[in-house]
Design goal:
The protein has about 80 residues and is mainly α. The radius of gyration is 13 Å and the shape is globular. The protein starts with a helix and ends in a 5-residue tail after the last helix. It catalyses: 2 a phenolic donor + H2O2 = 2 a phenolic radical donor + 2 H2O. Keywords: Disulfide bond, Heme, Iron, Metal-binding, Oxidoreductase, Peroxidase. This is peroxidase.
Length: about 80
C-alpha cells in the first residue's frame, strides 16, 4: 500500500504536496519531512529526467528553481 501512496522520485513538488496534504500534512510539514529524508547523497538517475527531459518534453521540469537546476546540472551532466 505504501508504494502506491508515496510519491515517486520523479514527482513534482505539486504532486508531493497534494499527496501528503491528503494525509493532513501542510506545506511546511511536508517540506520538513522530505528535507529530513533527503539529507545525504542521491544518484542522478533519480532526478535527471527532471533536469533534461521532464515528461518527455526534452526540457527541464518548469517547477524546478532555475538556480538549483543549474547547480544540479553541474553535478549531473547530460549523457546522450
Amino acid at each position: 500500500m505504501a508504494e502506491r501512496e508515496l510519491p515517486t522520485p520523479q514527482a513534482t513538488i505539486s504532486v508531493i504536496l497534494a499527496r501528503f496534504g491528503t494525509r493532513g500534512l501542510n506545506e511546511r510539514e511536508t517540506v520538513s519531512l522530505f528535507g529530513a529524508h533527503s539529507i545525504g547523497i542521491t544518484h542522478c538517475t533519480f532526478f535527471e529526467d527532471r533536469l533534461y527531459n521532464f515528461s518527455g518534453t526534452g526540457k527541464p521540469d518548469p517547477e524546478l528553481d532555475t538556480g538549483f537546476q543549474q547547480e544540479l546540472k553541474t553535478k549531473c551532466p547530460f549523457y546522450a
